Amino acid sequence: MPIQAPKGTRDILPADIYRWHYIESIIRGLCKSYGYREIRVPLFEHTELFSRGVGETTDIVQKEMYTFDDKAGRSLTLRPEGTAGVARAYIENGMQAQPAPQKLYYYGPMYRYENVQHGRYREFWQFGCEVLGAPGPGADVELISILKALFEGAGFTKTDLRINSIGCPACRPAYHKLLRAFFESKLDRLCADCKGRFERNPLRIIDCKQERCKQEIAGAPMALDHVCSDCLDHFEGLKSGLSELGIAYSIDKTIVRGLDYYTRTVFEFLSENVKSLGSAICGGGRYDGLIGLCGGPDTPGVGFSVGIERLFIELDSYGVKIPEPAGPDIFVVVAAAPVKTFAARLVDGLRRAGLGAELDLNARSVKAQMKFADRRNAVYTVVLGDDELSRGSAELRKMADGTKTEMNLNNFVDEFKNIIKIPN
Ligand code: HAM
Question: Which of 61, 174, 312, 328 could form a disulfide with 358 if both were Cys (CB 3.0 to 4.6 A apart)?
Answer without folding.
Answer: 328
